[in-house]
Design brief:
Helices cover 68% and strands 11% of the residues. With 263 residues, it is of the alpha+beta class. α3 (80-108) runs antiparallel to α4 and α4 packs antiparallel against α5.
């Protein structure tokens, strides 16, 4: 068994991990993929020459570099059932707050809450792709990724249009109480998710990436809470529109990455 180590400078979230997995999973000579997303590193355990694997990675245009290929033993794989159970809980929390924040966002006229709900949806899509696509055919995974990416992009596009409309019209000031209260509970939900992920003490890349995603969500929750406080103190809709535009940008970026999975 050989181990080839790649540095992939543009691999910074679970979307790129999924792209690589779907690209390489058809190779019978590959026994295991070990991702280290924080350090942008991928270790491929395989039996044959590495040239074909390197060529396939190059097609993804993620700026990969082969460091070395050495003899190695296949690592012991962690308990997948335990990881899936935790990811199911994280998926449920994210999708649940997507529904809650989307509903309360429209009721309270808060674009910040609506944008945060789509950020939750984006995470849910990535987690769902990881869970539902295990062992499935590549073609099915790509269809799911394509639908999810366009759906997310469409919602983000509608969000941008609504922000522009409110920017140029005398729309009402959002209800800051809803922004602060709902975002606080979403923050608690993400803290619970992060606790569950860290409790697993997993070194698997998708678990580490989930922790990174959830930590980013906590920052977004804090941003919406701050925007709600500024809406109250300034009596203005601008803080809500600004945080909404920022988060919609992240959501659109995530949708583009998911669409790359379908190529």
């Amino acid at each position: 068994m050989k181990k080839s180590t790649f540095i992939i400078s543009q691999m910074d979230c679970p979307s790129e991990e999924q792209m690589i997995r779907m690209k390489l999973e058809s190779y019978d000579q590959i026994a295991y993929l070990d991702f280290d997303i924080p350090n942008r590193k991928l270790e491929v355990y395989h039996s044959d020459a590495v040239e074909e694997i390197h060529s396939s990675l190059s097609e993804l245009k993620l700026n990969e570099k082969l460091l070395d290929t050495v003899e190695a033993e296949t690592p012991v794989i962690e308990d997948q059932a335990k990881q899936k159970n935790i990811l199911w809980w994280v998926l449920g929390i994210n999708f649940g707050f997507f529904l809650i924040e989307m509903t309360t966002g429209w009721i309270s006229s808060s674009m910040g809450l609506i944008a945060d709900s789509l950020d939750m949806l984006a995470d849910s899509i990535v987690y769902a792709l990881s869970l539902f696509a295990v062992g499935g055919a590549v073609a099915r995974k790509k269809r799911v990724a394509k639908f999810s990416g366009y759906f997310q992009m469409g919602l983000a596009g509608l969000g941008f249009i609504e922000i522009i409309r409110r920017f140029f019209t005398s729309s009402e000031t959002p209800l800051f109480q809803w922004m602060i209260i709902v975002s606080f509970f979403a923050l608690v939900g993400n803290l619970i998710s992060l606790w569950l992920i860290n409790k697993a003490k997993s070194k698997e890349a998708h678990m580490q990436a989930s922790a990174i995603f959830t930590s980013n969500d906590i920052i977004v929750n804090g941003g919406v809470i701050l925007a709600g406080a500024l809406v109250y103190f300034l009596g203005s809709k601008w803080p809500d529109l600004i945080i909404g535009a920022i988060v919609f940008t992240f959501v659109m970026r995530g949708a583009i990455k998911i669409l790359k999975l379908a190529k």
